Amino acid sequence: MTLDSCVLTVLYVYTLLSYLTARGLRARPEPETGWEPGVSVIVVAGNEAGTIGRCLDSFRRLDYPVDKLEFILVDDRSGDGTGQWMKRFLRSGRNGRLIETADTPDGKNGRTNGFVRACRSASGEILFFTEGDCEVPETWIRTLLKSYAPDVGLAAGFIALDFRDRRAPLFTRVQSLDWIHLGAIGSGWANLGYPLSVFGNNFSMRKSACVQAGGVEAVGEHWTRDFALFRNVRDSTRWRVVWAEEETGAVHSRAAASLKEFYHQRKPWAAVGRDRGVMALSLMTAAFLARLSIVACAAAGAWKLALLGFWSLLLADGLVLSQPLFALGRADLFRNFILYELTCIVYSVFFAPLVLFAGKVPRK
Question: Any idea which fold 29-255 has?
């Protein structure tokens, strides 16, 4: 095959997969309303005193009946006052308990031990998960609960790394686009019946689905406990996985402040990518090859073909991003769309292979 035919084939496959993703985003069924089960909010945090206060403050503003809401807070061997923040929050009259992971029985690392103990002790019918560097909207619980049709076992939400009404560094805004793009792919393929993953800092699940999938202990020592829990429910039960695309269900998290931090953030994601299944690997491979083909064309001096490839990426990714950006009230991020695409080319071609073939992720 000639360079032209190879590039055009790759771009066609990537555009087709993007079109199917966009179709999946439009296929989301109407959510249920009015359901108020018992809810347990679970946070495992270690040495996050700089952010845990804002996280707990956002919990105070949650719009949900106090008598149906509990908080399971896990202090993972912190030495910076994280546990003190948690104790003050619970002393303010919030229903819940503090778990401290000073020991790690059964060979488990601290975070996994805390995660397992928190899920075991939770009394809620629905378990909600976020992390200590996140802020949740007051509508978080009610929005995700709307997605729980009778056959839904797990509902996830989107992540934003900046606020629409606040100035943020350009690097943060580009990362916001990336997280929303990843969420859109997860949401679209979940609606098509092929759930790929969820964000560990914004998802919920039926406790009964967790039990049916072998219990939280079945996550073992997987690099990312949230993905292992999701995978077990997806592969071992008949429960459906859905995403809430509304702005009212999106959680705000902290962006990576540097390229080094970005690398260490994405390293475990690459490890998870090896475990996501054929469809996820196909999407990752198509994205990589589409961007590699543009670099190859530019290197060969085929500038018209490289430009065609770049515009094809803009079309394909814009098709996927348009619905969630408007649904999340973040159409303003389109101003950074071209820079995001250029960043993706650099990341995919020069950075992703380094992450993919890096050594094991250290256990925390």
Answer: Spore Coat Polysaccharide Biosynthesis Protein SpsA; Chain A (3.90.550)
